[in-house]
Each structure stands twice: as C-alpha cells, then as structure tokens.
Amino acid sequence: MDIFVEQSAQARLITAEDQEVPVSATLRYSADDPLAVFVDFPPEATLEGGEVTWTFARSLLDQGLRAPAGHGDVQIWPHGRTRTVLEFHSPQGLALLQFPTSALRRFLLRTYTVVPAGQEDVAAVVERGLSALFGGV
User: Fold this and answer.
1) Number of domains forming the structure of the chain
2) Higher-scoring residue by pLDDT: 123, 134
3) 80 φ/ψ sector (left φ>0, alpha ψ -120 to 50, else beta)
4) Exposed, middle or buried by CB within 10 Å (0-12, 13-18, 19+), for 126?
5) Are 39 and 54 a contacting pair, CB within 8 Å?
6) Which phi-psi region, left, alpha or beta, contains residue 66 (left: φ > 0; alpha: ψ -120 to 50)?
7) Domain containing residue 116: CATH number
8) Is 134 inside any structural domain?
9) Of 25, 75, 103, 121, which has the fewest CB atoms closer than 10 Å, so is most exposed?
10) Residue-averaged pLDDT of the chain
11) Residue 35 falls within a domain, yes or no?
12) pLDDT tens profile 6-15
C-alpha cells in the first residue's frame, strides 16, 4: 500500500514586470517514488491552460531550503529568512515562484516521517523505471 503526503501551499509568481501574483500549488510525495517530490499547479496558474506538475529530487528541496541548489530545469534557494524561491525552466519559458519557507519545510519533514532520508529503496525505484522503459519485459 502506497503512502502519500499532500499539502496545499500558497506561492507568489514573480512576473517579468517584477509583480507578485498569488498562485496556489499542491506539494505531493509518494512512498512509491521516494526520491521525488511533485508540485502541481492548477490550470489558471499556467501558460498552457492545463494543470502542470513539476517533479524533482526530494534532496534538492532539502538542500535548497538551506543554500542555493540545483542546475538546469529546477533551482531552489532561500530568499531572506521566510521565503524560498523555486525557479522552473521549460521550453515555454521560466517560472519564478516564492514559497513560504515554513510551508516547504513542514512538507519536507512530513515526507521524512513516511520515508526517512537515506532509507529510500533505490533498487525498487530503478527496477520500476526499467520496467516502465522496457514495457515490463
């Protein structure tokens, strides 16, 4: 049986005009995919007009709450004492969001109650990935 953690969070989307637009998001974690966290954005918060989910390493979120972390599509860093910035890059553009650090930290701690850091079953994750890649062969 899979164990989930799900938490709503309010963020601020920073626009190209340096304005802050409130955006709701859902943070998710699944013991079935213990290395990853998911951030879901509703259709009204996306350029495509459909729900968008970003997936990245749980360890990246942990690192980014303390110091700048990440390269490429997802980067995370503290912004002052109460905010954390998540920067998402895609072919459609860039999204820069500020989340309350307390909300991200609370979510991360909840994930560690499900699967403690360092206790992830990496072999099972790799096997599921290979099975999906090769069609269950």
Assistant:
1) 1
2) 134
3) left
4) exposed
5) yes
6) alpha
7) 2.30.31.20
8) no
9) 121
10) 88
11) yes
12) 999 999 999 8
In 3D space, the residue among 95, 50, 93 whose CA is nearest the CA of residue 76 turns out to be 95
Cα angle: 79, vertex 62, 21; to 5 degrees: 40
CB atoms within 10 A of CB 28: 19
DSSP state of 15: P
**Tokens found for residue 33:** 């995919």
Give the DSSP letter of residue 62: H
Domain encompassing residue 85: 4-125
Tokens representing 61 are: 């979120």
Q: Which of 35, 7, 34, 18 is nearest to 100 (CA)?
A: 7
pLDDT of 118 higher than 90: no
Model pTM score = 0.84
Q: What confidence tens digit (pLDDT) does each residue in 10-42 have? A: 999 998 888 899 999 999 999 988 999 999 998
Residue 82 pairs in a beta bridge with none
Quick one: tokens of 120? 């992830």
